Amino acid sequence: MNNYIIGIDPDSEKYGVAIIKNGVLVTVRSMCITDLVPMLAELSENASVEVNIEDLCAIKASSFNHSSRDRPAVRYKKSEHVGMCKQAQKVVEKFCEVYGIAVRKHKVSKMWKDSKKGRAALKSVFGWDKESNEDSRSAAYFAWLGMQKNNL
Predict the structure, then answer these.
(1) Comparing 10-24, 73-87, 99-113, 116-130, which segment has the lowest mean pLDDT?
(2) What is the C-alpha to C-alpha distance for residues 77 and 79, in angstroms, rounded to an integer?
(3) Directed axis angle between helix 33-46 and helix 72-99, to 10°?
(4) Could you tell me how far CA 64 lies from the centroid of its own chain?
(5) Residue 119: pLDDT over 90
(6) Structural domain tally of the chain?
(7) What pLDDT is attached to residue 70?
(8) pLDDT, average across residues 33-40
């Protein structure tokens, strides 16, 4: 039986997604929910699947990603975006529950998001030198954390 560890960085439009199959990173990309959900359903039919997701719901929107120096309109816009990302996380978790997929939540992190350092980390840890973006690298980081927890 195949073993999948999936890292997800939830976003309001496209999710960063990284897939580790039997200990090998096979996908680092962005996906919309209409592609992600059928993939999760299909994988969960005949394999062991665990989703490792950035836990945006564990933080307060008012204290996330803005400073007190931001104008009120900027603070509201940032809080609105964080709220949309939190909802995106809840949607993934609900589908995982429906398909019997285990979910492991991880503390919010900027690890591997930086273009230069993140790409270097992906190459060093997984040998991945293909295309990636900030969100997909972040998802790969959460998948890697899942591998560490599962001792793979």
Answers:
(1) 73-87
(2) 5
(3) 30
(4) 17
(5) yes
(6) 1
(7) 63
(8) 96
Residue 74 covered by a domain: no
Instruction: Give me the domain span that covers residue 14.
Output: 2-56+86-149
CATH number for position 40: 3.30.420.10
Q: How big, in percent rounded to 5, are the helix, strand and coil portions of the chain?
A: 50, 25, 25
Tell me the three state secondary structure of residue 139.
helix
Is 66 within a domain?
A: no
Give Cβ neighbours of residue 47 (< 8 Å, ≥ 6 apart). Answer: 1, 2, 3, 4
Indicate whether 68 belongs to any domain: no
3-state DSSP call for residue 130?
Answer: coil
- AA identity, residue 28: V
* 91 Cβ contact partners less than 8 Å away, ≥ 6 residues apart: 33
Task: Average the pLDDT over 67-74 and give the result.
Answer: 68
In this structure, what token pair is assigned to residue 14? 């496209």
Q: Within a domain: residue 79? A: no
